[in-house]
Amino acid sequence: MVKVYLDCCCYCRRYDISDQKQVIAEVDAISAIYCMHEFGFISIAGSEALNDEISCISDPVKRKKVLSDYYNVDEIIGLSDSINLRSIQIQERSNIRMYDSLHIASAEEACAAVMLTTDYKLIKMASRIDLKVKVMNPRSFIFQYMNGGDI
């Protein structure tokens, strides 16, 4: 079973109002990921860092919807000295911001195969450094998973 970690922007994406084809396709991909999880094809890891970031969503209605989706994760990785240290290492080797580096470090700690994000800048920055987790867009993940590609 493939283990995935979704960052905050993935949880929020379903509640973004947009007529952009890219956003609509990402919403569909994230919905498919939730279905794959519901039927036991993948497991989903979360983290304390994700809990913190979700709690910062200013719109209370959106925050409640995001929390509803998030509470279905299979495990929550707590913050630890090793995660904080790894987060700092990631920041020192790239322009990746604190929350994003905490998500990557948490995904690595969870032994997730992939960390999903809709942040294309993050995907590009992550591709330039050595990580124990693949950082990719939900659409790419669905495409590779459905076509039997290496995740």
The number of helices is 8
How much helical structure, as a percent, in the residues? 40-55%
Task: List unreliable stretches of 5+ residues.
Answer: none
The biggest sheet, with number of strands, parallel, antiparallel or mixed sense and barrel status, is: 5 strands, parallel
Secondary-structure-derived class: alpha/beta
- Whole-Å distance between the termini? 11 Å
> How many distinct beta strands?
5
Which whole number gives the mean pLDDT?
A: 96
Sheet-strand content, in percent, reads 5-15%
The 3D shape can be described as globular
Output the radius of gyration. Answer: 14 Å
Spell the H/E element sequence.
EHHEHHEHHEHEH
Give the strand line-up of the largest sheet: 3-2-1-4-5
Name some characteristics of this structure:
151 residues, alpha/beta, five-stranded parallel beta sheet, 5 strands, 13% strand
Please explain how this structure is put together.
- This protein has 151 residues and is of the alpha/beta class.
- It has eight helices and five strands.
- The chain has helices spanning 8-13, 21-38, 48-55, 60-70, 81-92, 98-109, 120-126, 138-146; strands spanning 2-6, 42-47, 75-77, 114-116, 134-136.
- The protein has a five-stranded parallel beta sheet with strand order 3-2-1-4-5, with helices on both faces.
- The radius of gyration is 14 Å and the shape is globular.
- The mean pLDDT is 96.
